[in-house]
Amino acid sequence: MTTFRRFRPDDVNKFSKCNLDPLTETYELNFYLQYHAKWPSLFQVCEDSEGNIVGYIMGKVESSPDAYKFSEHYLPWHAHITALTVAPEARRQGIGKILVEQLEAAADTHNTWFMDLFVRSSNAKAIAFYKELGYSVFRVVKDYYGEHATDPDKDSEDAFDMRKSMKRDAKHEHVRDDGEQHEVHPEDVW
Amino acid sequence: MNRQRPRLKNGVDLQLQSAFHDGNWPVVIRLAEKRAKLSNDQYYECLKICAESQLDDPSTKFAAVAAVWKHVKDGSTIKDVEAIELMEWATTNLIDPDDFAETLGPLRVRAVKASPKDKYAATRCLESCLLHWDLASAQQIAAIIDRSFPQERDWLFWNIVITHLLSTSPLTTPDKRKLYGTLAQKQIERAAQAAEQAQDSNEASNKAPSRRVKTEEEVLLLYDIVETHGTPQDFRKLISSPIFSPVVQFRQGRKEVVMRAIAKLSRDGDWPAVFNLCNDCLSDCDADGQLTLLASDIAMWRHLITAASHVKDTNPDSANVVQKLLAKLLSSSHMRPMYRRNILLARVLAVFSLGPSDESDLTDGQPSSLRLRELMRYIDDQYLSPACFSDVKTLMESLDAAGLKYLAFDHLPKLAEVDSNDFKAASTRLLAHKTQYLLLTHRTTKHRDQNQQLKCTVCGSAVESTLCQPCLSQLSEACVTFYSSITKSEGEKTKINAEILPELAILVAFCSLNLAFGDGQAGQLLKPQETRHLVRALLLLDDQLAQNSGHSQLSLVLTQLHIRLGSGARASDIWDVIGVKRTIIDSLGPIFYDRLSTISPALLSTYDSWGSHLMDLLQSHYVNSLKLRMHQRLIDAFESGSYGSVIGIPQYIESLRSSGTRAMSLVEARRIERFLGQPSRELESDPRFYEVNDDTNLTQTVDYGSFPSWNSSTIQPMHLNLRLGPAPSNRRCHLSMLAEAFHELLTYKSPASYKASAGSSEYDHIFITETLARLSNSFPRFLAGPDDEMTQPELCYFETISLLCTLLSLCIDFDRSSDIADALHQITDVLSLSLENQRSQILHSEKPSIERTLTMLGSMHNIAMLRDTTAAIKLAAQWILNHNEKEKARDRSGRSSLPKELAAKIKDLQTAAEKSIKEGQAWIAELKTETMSRDFEPQLKKWVLEGEGAIKSILTMDSLPGLIDSWQLNVKGWLQVKWP
Known about the structure:
The complex is a heterodimer of chains A (about 190) and B (about 1000).
Chain A: E1 2-6, H1 16-19, H2 29-38, E2 43-48, E3 53-62, E4 78-86, H3 95-109, E5 114-120, H4 124-132, E6 136-145, E7 157-165, E8 183-184
Chain B: H1 14-22, H2 25-39, H3 42-52, H4 58-61, H5 63-74, H6 81-90, H7 104-114, H8 119-131, H9 135-148, H10 153-168, H11 174-200, H12 216-229, H13 232-239, H14 246-250, H15 255-268, H16 271-282, H17 298-311, H18 318-330, H19 337-354, E1 362-363, E2 366-367, H20 370-382, H21 388-398, H22 401-418, H23 422-440, E3 446-448, E4 454-456, H24 469-488, H25 493-517, H26 528-547, H27 552-564, H28 568-578, H29 585-593, H30 596-599, H31 609-625, H32 633-639, H33 643-657, H34 660-676, H35 687-690, H36 718-722, H37 730-747, H38 760-783, H39 792-812, H40 821-840, H41 850-857, H42 860-890, H43 900-932, H44 936-945, H45 960-975
Antiparallel strand pairs in B: 1-2, 3-4
Helix pairs in contact in B: 1-2, 2-3, 3-6, 6-7, 7-8, 7-9, 8-9, 9-10, 10-11, 11-12, 12-15, 15-16, 16-17, 17-19, 18-19, 19-20, 20-21, 21-23, 22-23, 23-24, 23-25, 24-25, 25-26, 26-27, 27-28, 29-34, 31-34, 32-33, 34-37, 37-38, 37-42, 38-39, 39-40, 39-42, 40-42, 40-43, 41-43, 42-43, 43-45
GO molecular function (chain A): protein-N-terminal amino-acid acetyltransferase activity
GO cellular component, one term (chain A): NatB complex
Keywords (chain A): Acyltransferase, Transferase
């Protein structure tokens, strides 16, 4: 029993079902308000019939600073998924997919070229989830995360920068099939 | 406010820049004065004043403040915005933030008026006014900018939204609110009209006027303003607009507008309009003729069904329309499981709301009503969903007792038998047990027979309360058997361990807890046999948490249980693992912190790293989020044209500022400091205190959403039973802060370095008299109200302090010629009774036993309240007696000193308080002896396992040592408490 709608600031008072899950990080208020203030249509929540938030997605639209315009790593106008979470009890219902699709619709409204996101290379579930939605690895950011999620002997982990073309990129010029062969360093990511 | 030193404006020479940067104020003063004379530039004059304000000399410290006030009174203008910014910086913390609207705000407005075309200066001034929440000045500036740059459409909407904010601000007078409301509405309606005219004349978008409503945010603002300030006709006109009607907006993917319109129409009771609007949106198709499903939220379906139930008399076809729509959507080819679930559930809701309501759910032992059959259809489809129980809980509760019993004891167990897969069978059986639990906690399952004897419909036995103990014991037994069997089974062990066992353990624990609580006695002291049920539940859940570390439901219930039983240390370990911090502390903090200082004061001592860590988690959110009067992100919202956020952020920030959790964080911190003798800064200098006055409504926002909500809604939820007492209410928060102010007043000691001047004692006297008068006025205001907003010991404590304030006030200005002596005698009598009453809240028997120890461990809140009550009485009595001695010495006539018998009575009160203190200290000493004794663990183990209870068979007792350690730590902590 769910309803999808935009985030409102007092939703943070109903975040417990999502944010008490160990895999979901709780940020300072400033962080949530930043997304709410700048990109309100890209911060969507899913609430249950009691008003508890059982899922939310935070996204933004941006491009790399103009100073990097001629760099090979320059990112044109695009949307980015910053956070996606679904409460444990609400999983396997397609809530995550609906939230991503809604963000994609908003990204098209903003006339972006593509949507991207970062995911740990060890997070097979998330990678499979995004691949099913049409995302593919665009590049591998070496040692992007400071610690490894599954291997305590390693002190870093790679990130997959995954992408999906939005309507504007009709020719799919901003995605590639062999992204896992393209490695970059964290300093190449802005 | 932000004290970061500003940068000097361009053109200031390097010598002055570097002196300013280095904070070399004498040089800055000298150079600025010189430049001011040479250039006649007002900026340098301001710079000189601001530099003077940085000197330690008290005579110059307020130079900038004085200059600001002078400009305001003279009506003169500081034209240079950078000079105003210097002034703002130099007066930070010296001008009351509330005075901004009378000082720097108007100066900012004057500066913008002086240079209306200076966009940079105007936006800087606007930003400052917004962050200081000076809406009156902000509105004037926004209007000037809008007039100066009519071609820039953003300024138009900034002007409109600020005018709208001003019209809804409680700081604006009612007549001005109306004026600004009308202004905002006229402006935005003009912009809306421009959009409609452009469409009518088919103007190409590049030729359409820029000052028109265009974006989704602007449309939302239009709705907000018309809804707030417009007439019903204005709103009707809006929703019929060819551009702005909700359906047209929805077809552009703008769902928020529809939700806004539905909410307003529902409030107005315009059900035909709600029905049509929901129907239009739910049946909306895309260009390919496919249903969009964008509106297929449960909220939208609920609105449609509610509206249909209202219009069915005038529109008999409405129920058919709903049914047809449901069937149409269910046949949609690209259905997500979530939407399918919503639609299936909407079908059940429709039958419950629109179908026949007078049918019996069961006839001859078989489902007969349409609603039960439809509900079973939904369950048969969705029973494997983890959310199935919560989806249908309310609907199940609407069934009659026979229907619900059939579901719980016939239908669902049969479903469980069908599944061959271990996990599926286990989850269905768990669903059956949860439904049985719902049935047993439902009031309709109890009825009175011919002899007026209350009987249980389920088992037929006579019962004494809403809860049937034999049924609960039987359910507990069934769950324990189930628990034992699945822990032994090998199939899908990981999934069963992760998803079934925690909930099953909670269910067994809940049966045990219900045996303890009966009809619900939140916060009351438990009898030994009731405590035993709590300890058993705690041990089972702690065992389970060892298998499912960080499980949120287990952790939250356990946190409450440990606190309720006086085991704060273990509660803090569990709390720390689930990581409640930052933004969610406001809504979840009270679950752990509220009254924790009365249970485990040493646990939160900021003198050790663990306590400091815990207190920092609680307090830092408010420090970080409320640094400025208004949050910086408001400016982002303006710059992004997010007008919904422009309206939403201030509302949230205001509610956070008046949050009950924020007030609670102060009260908990202050009580710990008093208990442990660790004084910190003055109460008056804490924003959590000085930003609150008697008119502030301190709001309660506790998020219980993650607690298992399995009790029937006809009885109290379990999390309320487990609390020490009611959540932080407006009244309790105010009373607690007033009580802290009382303690600070009577315990205040001047710093050793402070030398009192001859007249200072007179000022002290005035300060004390005025503070007591204020407290005496405030206490009765918050004491009046229902008793269920605080525990009995808290109420007794607050009443005692209120009386003490009156007693002190009367004794300070005592005059024998007046007839207040009788009143004073009466007050002291009542105070003695209050003290006795507070003592009686603690159940203590003389004979040592394991029951006595556990009762005492569960009575720490009451002991803490006794400690505070006695402290307040003793401090007040001492103060009065000292004051009396001084008066006797000062006024030899004896007219202003207390009569002997009254002084003796106050002395008696002091003695009684001291006796009570000794008694309290003795209890703690006894607790230490008993909990540290070698026999404690074996005795406790034996006691826990005594008597009946299926739960015993699955208790490993592995968690017992942890519980004992936690109790011992708590008692050791109490040994650090200072008894005055």
